Amino acid sequence: MDNLDMQILNRLLNNCRESDRQIGIELGISGGAVRARIRKMQENKIIEEFLVKVEPPVLGYGVLYFVVSGQNISEILEQASLVGEPYFVVPCVGGITVCGISVKDNMSQKIELAKKLMKDVRVLSIFEAENPGFNANLTKTDLEILEELIKDPRQKIEQVAKNTKMSTKTITRCLEKIHNNDGIQFTLVYNPKKIESFIPHVILTWIEGDLKETLETLNGLFSNSYLQIPFIAKNQIVLFMYSESIFEMDELTQKVRNVKNVKSADLFIPKTISFYTKWIEKAINDFKKSPKLHLSYQTN
């Protein structure tokens, strides 16, 4: 891996539907060179899969975040699945695992239930995600297209149209709408262990003050170290970054902690990253059976 590979990975993480040619134009190389590097990253298992990442509130679900001491993933998932459907699981260096669970109703009750169910693992933190208010307003057509793209997010518009038996005009219009939804992202899953010469890491910040102002400050200071664009919630900014050494990583974390309005910042170094789509498929299938024409949620 070199800096050019990391820049390609950055663009695919932020939008895996961006064409090889467009990425090449932005980076000053040919589309063929971009395609060859992507293929090599896939062959070396750096890129594990392309993915449509849907934030649960878009489909009417809440999110519980668990931070637990332990890395027995099957045990954690078995207990967490009694509360809701797994959304993502990330075992980190140091024996910590971070996971998200999509939950339909009664969040406060589910938090208490989770604490009781997960008595066999040391729970460091369980909290309900506060989100910025994703307004889905998706139609059954949008969801049918989304369901198709989950199978292969990099499908060409013509292929999606053929598979869904819709016009390319309809696909293009719906894709633009989906792209503009902050709660839906065309991205990928990478293997942190396979990225040589760089250390991917996540800094979870808790903000006390103006979120927009703080994000602008963070972007101005650290955007050159971003592996992908930050994830924003009401009182949190999650920074996805990469460093060339543990010393650079530690220095970045300390600098983030010193930024105005940052109350605290916790460093996580992922070992593996897993996303789950079963809950998405269930939500889409449930809505297909509904007489409603629009799936419209807005959470604050």
How would you characterize the overall build of this protein?
The protein is α+β, with helices and mostly antiparallel strands. The protein has four domains: 3-44, Orthogonal Bundle (Arc Repressor Mutant, subunit A); 54-138 and 181-191 and 272-294, 2-Layer Sandwich (Alpha-Beta Plaits); 140-180; 195-268, ACT-like. Chain A, domain 2 (Alpha-Beta Plaits, 2-Layer Sandwich), CATH 3.30.70. It is 40% helix and 28% strand. The protein contains eleven helices and 13 strands. It has helices at residues 3-14, 20-27, 31-43, 73-80, 107-117, 140-151, 157-164, 168-179, 211-222, 246-257, 278-288; strands at 47-54, 62-69, 85-92, 96-103, 122-128, 138-139, 184-190, 199-207, 226-232, 236-243, 262-268, 274-275, 294-295. It has a five-stranded antiparallel beta sheet, with helices on one face. The protein has a four-stranded antiparallel beta sheet with strand order 9-10-8-11. A hairpin with a 3-residue loop joins strand 9 (226-232) and strand 10. Helix 2 (20-27) crosses helix 3 (31-43) and helix 6 packs antiparallel against helix 11 (278-288). The longest helix is centred in the N-terminal third of the chain and has 13 residues, at 31-43. It is globular. The mean pLDDT is 88.
Structural key phrases:
4 domains; five-stranded antiparallel β-sheet; alpha+beta; 300 residues; 13 strands; 11 helices; 40% helix; globular; four-stranded antiparallel β-sheet; Arc Repressor Mutant, subunit A; Alpha-Beta Plaits
